[in-house]
Amino acid sequence: MTALETASVPAATATPALACRGLSKRYGDVVAVEDVGFAIAPGQAYGLLGPNGAGKTTTISMLVGLLRPDSGTVLVGGVDLAADPTRAKAKIGYVPQEIALYPELTGRENLRFFGRLFGLPRRRLAARIDEVLDLIGLTDRADTKLGTYSGGMKRRINIGAALLHRPEVLILDEPTVGVDPQSRKAILDGVERLVEEGMALLYTSHYMEEIERVCERAAIIDHGRIIADGTRRELVSLVGTADKVELVLDGDVETAFAKLRAVEGVVEAARTGASSVRLIAEGGRYLLPALITAVEGSATVTATQVIEPDLEATFLHLTGSTLRD
Amino acid sequence: MTTTGLRPRPVLALVAANLRRHTRDRVGLFFMVVMPFVSIVFVGMALGGGTAGSSRLPVGVVAEDSGPVSTALLAELRRHPDLEVTTMTSAAELRSGVREGSLAAGLVIPSGSTRLDLVVTETNGSGMAARSAIDVAVSKVAAVEEATRAARTAGATPEQAAAYVRQAQAESGRVAVKDTSTAAGDPRGFAYTAPANLLLFTFINSMAVAAALVESRRLGMLQRALTAPVRHRSVLLGEALSRFLVAGAQAALIMAVSVLAFGVHWGDPLGVAAVVGTFALVSTGAAILVGTLLRTPDQAPAIGPPLGVVLGMLGGCLWPRESSGDVLNAVGHLFPHAWGMDALLKLAVPGTGIGAVLPQLGVLAAMAALLLGASLVLFGRRTRALG
C-alpha cells in the first residue's frame, strides 16, 4: 500500500509547517503561476506533479524566498516569509534540482559551508555533519573531493546539505534525477525516515512511483494552476473507477467484439487492430472470466492486459500529457 | 521586515569556501605564485637587472683626444647618478658592447670635432634611458662652453669668464635636475619590474578567479546560499571580500619576495599599502563585473587575463613607460595600471610619502568606487532574492 493511499488529512487546527495561499507570478503577459495554494502539516509528505513548464520551479522559488511573488503569502511554521525572511528561511531545507555544491571541496567541507550559512556553531556543526553523513551513508567518502563522487553520491550530499540545521520543512526538487537505483533507494528510504520523524516534505518528481511511495497527498499543477489536489484515491477517482481491458482474439473477431460489447459492466469498446479490442469496464479486473466465456464459440482470447486507473492515468486525463513530456 | 544586520558567520563561510577553492586550483596557483617572479626576473634582467640601488646604466665612452671638451664631458657623464661610465679604446668595441647588451649606450667623442656619435639600440628601454641621461650631460657641458664663449666675446677677463662659467654651470645644473626628473626618472631593473608585475598580476589573477564566480553562479551555489537565512548583502560582501583577499594576497606575495630576494625598495609603507589596497579594490570590482557578465567559467580565463595584459601594456607594466611614447602613455592613464605605476614609482623615490601620491590615489579610488559600485549592483540584480 502506498503512502498516498494511506493518507489522512491533517487536523485543520495544527499550524502547517508550510502553507501558501494565492501565490501568483507573471513575467510580462506570461502567467507562470496563478493562485496556487496548499498546506503541509508537520510529518506530512506532499507531492507536486506537473509537466515541464507547468510552474513547479517558479512555485518552489517563491516558497524558498528566491522569487518575490506578485501576490499571495507564504507561511513557514507560521512565519510570514515576506515579513521575516531570515526567520522563515531558517525553517526550510531546500534541495535544488541541480547539484549545487562546490566540486573542488570535499563532501564534509561542502556540508560545513552550508552549516555555517545557517549559523550553526562550530562544535554543534561538526557533530551534525557526522550525523548527516551517517544518514546519507557517505561517512567513508566524506573527506574526498566531491568531483570524484558518482552522480548518486553527489545527490545525497546535495540533500544532506539541506538537513544540517534540522529544518521543519524539506523541499526536494527532483532529487533523484540521473541517479542509480541503489542511490535512489537510499534517498527515498532516508526521506521516508525524515517524514516519520516529523519533518514536513514537499516533493517534486517526474517519477510517479516515487510520489506514490513517499507522499500522502499530491497536487497536479499545469499552466501555473493547481488543477487537482488530494490523496491518491481522491486523485484517481477523478478519472472514474473503470479499468481498461485489452484483449487479443483469434477467430471471428467481428462476432466476438459484438458479444464483448454486450457483457454487463462494459461501458465502452473499441477495435484497436485486426485482432485486438480495448474495453473500458467497471471492475474490469474481475470481469475477465465473463469476457473470456462471452467470446467462446466465436473466438479464443490469446492475450489479456488490465490497466487499473493510477496517478499516471489521472495526470494524462487532467493535463493531456505524460509527466515526461 | 526584520532589521537583522550583517552576520559575520555566513560572510566568513563564503570567504573560507572560496579561498579553499582557489588553493586547490593548481594552474591558478602557478600563475599566482610562480609566474609573477619569472616575469620580474626576466624582464628585470632585460631592463638592466639589479635593484634600485645598483641600477646605473652601463655606458661606454671612446674619447679620441683629451681636450677640455672631452675631459669636461667625461667628468659630467661620470657625475650623472644613473650612469656607470666605462672608457673604451675603440668605436668598434663600443658598438659590439651595445649590440650584445653589455652596454646600454655608447658615446664616441671625435678628436677636434663638436659632433658626438651616440650608439644606442632604440628599441631597448635601457638604451632610451641612457640616451636621455647622456643628453642631459651633453647639455650641461654645452652650456658651460657657451657661457665661456659668450664671456670672452663680451671682453671678459679670464677671472670674470670663470665666474660666468661657474654661474652657467649652476644654471645648467638646475636645468639638468629638472630634465632628469622627466626623462630618466623611472628606476630600472627589479625596482621597475617588481611594481609593474605587482599591478599586472594582481589584476590578471583577479580576472582569472572571476571564473570561480561564474562557476558559483552556474552551479546555483549563490542562489542556494540565498535560500539560507542570509542577507543578500552578506552574500555580496562574502564574494567581494573573497576576491579582494586574493588580490591582496597576490600583491603582498610579490612585495615580500621582491624585498627579500631582489632587495627592492618600495618606499613609504603607508603610501604603498594605500596604493596597493586601492588597486586591489579596483581589481576586485573588475573581477566581480567580469564574473557577473560572463556566462561560462571558460570565458573568464579567455577574456580576463588578455584584458589585464592589454591594460598592463598601456600602463607601462610590460615595458618601461618611456619607450611607449606620449600618446600611448596618455591613453594608458584612462586605466588604473598607469596610475598605479605612477604612484608606486613615485613612492620608491626616497623621502616620498603618501602625500605625494594623493592625486593618483584619488583617481584609483574613484575607479575602484565606480567598478565596485557597478559590479555589485549588477551582481546583486542577478542574484536577487528575499532577504
UniProtKB/TrEMBL annotation, chain A:
- Record Gene3D superfamilies: P-loop containing nucleotide triphosphate hydrolases (3.40.50.300)
Q: Which SUPFAM superfamilies match?
A: P-loop containing nucleoside triphosphate hydrolases
Which Pfam families does this UniProt record tie to the protein?
ABC_tran
Q: Which UniProt keywords apply?
A: ATP-binding, Nucleotide-binding
Domain ABC transporter, by residue range, is 18-248
Q: Which GO terms describe its molecular function?
A: ATP binding
The protein's matches in InterPro entries, at most eight in alphabetical order, are given as:
AAA+_ATPase, ABC_transporter-like_ATP-bd, ABC_transporter-like_CS, P-loop_NTPase
Do you know which PANTHER family this protein is assigned to?
LINEARMYCIN RESISTANCE ATP-BINDING PROTEIN LNRL
Q: What is this protein called?
A: ABC-2 type transport system ATP-binding protein
UniProtKB/TrEMBL annotation, chain B:
Bilayer-crossing regions: 27-47, 196-214, 241-264, 270-290, 302-321, 357-379
The answer to whether keyword Ligase applies is no
Location within or outside the cell: Cell membrane
Residues covered by the ABC-2 type transporter transmembrane domain: 28-376
The protein's name in its UniProt record: ABC-2 type transport system permease protein
Ordered alphabetically, the record's keywords are:
Cell membrane, Membrane, Transmembrane, Transmembrane helix
> Would the keyword Transmembrane helix be found if you checked this record's keyword annotation?
yes
Membrane topology reported for the UniProt record: Multi-pass membrane protein
InterPro entries from the entry?
ABC-2_transporter_component, ABC2_TM
PANTHER family annotated for this entry? MEMBRANE COMPONENT OF ABC TRANSPORTER YHHJ-RELATED, TRANSPORT PERMEASE PROTEIN
Pfam families (UniProt xref): ABC2_membrane_3
